[in-house]
# Entry
Amino acid sequence: MIILYIIIGMAVVTALPRIIPAIIVDKFMFRDWLNRWLKAIPYAALGALIFPGILTVKSGEPHVGLIGGIVAVILAYFGLNIMFVVIGAIAAVYFLM
# Structure
């Protein structure tokens, strides 16, 4: 029974910090420049998570991952489907290795 209380407690502690800001932010109207800045945060976080992995695709040869990343950026710039972007980047790295 104590394990059930622990699981419920952990669920509440995890959910509250996610739910409360969503409820509070929904009630405010932000200026346009702040909205643009807030919308850029997920892309910046994603870039920060992906870039170190790009540099370590092949040990001792960071250019392989960089070229794969550049291919992905170019394909995404042209508005291709995400599957084609991923497959294109994987193919570029595969042929370079």
Summary: The mean pLDDT is 90. Residues 2-26 form the longest helix (25 residues). The radius of gyration is 20 Å. The helical segments are 2-26, 32-55, 62-77, 82-96.
